[in-house]
Write a structure and sequence with these properties.
Distance between the termini of chain B: 38 Å
Shape of chain B: globular
Strand content of chain A: under 5%
Largest sheet of chain B: none
Radius of gyration of chain A: 16 Å
Structural class of chain B: mainly alpha
Structural class of chain A: mainly alpha
Strand content of chain B: under 5%
Oligomer: heterodimer
Order of helices and strands of chain A: HHHHHH
Helix content of chain B: 55-70%
Number of strands of chain B: 0
Number of strands of chain A: 0
């Protein structure tokens, strides 16, 4: 619980620093999108942010290796289908957990609040459905 | 300058993801399992992250940064069909994989069949979204 609050605070601080120092939004799906499209004027800082994420992951692998994902939670067919939906849905909806959930709600955006409520509800229904199929 | 700041923020962001436990797909799936063994971790992560960002937003909105760029003055409040459809599909995918884009990128530091497949599929989804007309409201 304490770790979750501390880690959340670090996530919020990272997004806040990016906002205050550069005016940019730390929405990871938008950042991925900007790098994929080689968005003029934006892709450099976006690529640097992604490099930072991986670098942080390398540090975690050194210091706290158990925090990184170990095994797949489902079969690879589900992972591929789910991954495509994550990337597609985040770009159609204009944000993911970081963009809507942290940066959006973290600026009182009704769009961010609505997006977060919708994807949590859709996720919960999906889990419920998978449960009842078993 | 933007590049160095973005790199540093990316490092702090992913360390936060690791410390909070959100790199684990089981935690995400546990959070979404409201009718089973519910795992509240993500609530605490949000409670840690959002207030910090709100304070920064309150003081910085509409101001110029040291980089000469502007912090947006207004939040986006628009609600449209794209938001509803996109967030719904995102939620379904999030529940299936247990990862969203931030953790997917961070987990590349520990390459495995799972982390590489998840990242590649997310990228494929991003590219697919380019075929959706921008004004599909």
């Amino acid at each position: 619980m304490g770790n979750a609050l501390l880690g959340g605070g670090m996530i919020g601080l990272a997004a806040a620093m990016l906002l205050v120092l550069t005016g940019k939004t730390a929405g990871v799906s938008g950042i991925l999108d900007g790098v994929v499209r080689a968005e003029p004027g934006e892709w450099r800082w976006k690529a640097a942010f992604l490099a930072g994420l991986v670098l942080g992951g390398v540090l975690l692998a050194q210091w706290m290796p158990s925090t990184l994902a170990q095994a797949a939670p489902r079969t690879m067919t589900w992972i591929v289908a789910g991954g495509v939906l994550v990337g597609f849905g985040a770009r159609v909806g204009g944000g993911c957990t970081s963009g809507h959930g942290v940066c959006g709600i973290g600026r009182g955006s009704r769009r961010g609040i609505a997006g977060t409520v919708i994807f949590i509800a859709a996720g919960a229904l999906t889990i419920l459905l998978l449960r009842s199929l078993r | 300058v933007n590049v160095a700041i973005a790199l540093a923020c990316g490092v702090l962001f992913s360390l936060g993801l690791g410390v909070s436990g959100m790199l684990q797909p089981t935690r995400v799936i546990g959070f979404l399992d409201f009718f089973g063994a519910w795992d509240p971790t993500l609530v605490f992560v949000m409670c840690g992250a959002i207030p910090v960002h709100l304070v920064a937003w309150y003081f910085a909105r509409g101001r110029s940064t040291l980089c000469g760029t502007e912090v947006p003055a207004k939040a986006n409040h628009s609600l449209d069909a794209r938001l509803v459809a996109g967030a719904t599909l995102f939620g379904v995918g999030w529940a299936l994989t247990g990862v969203c884009p931030g953790p997917a990128v961070t987990n590349l530091a520990a390459p495995s069949m799972f982390t590489l497949t998840a990242m590649a599929s997310i990228l494929a989804g991003v590219v697919l979204s380019y075929f959706v007309p921008a004004r599909a409201n």
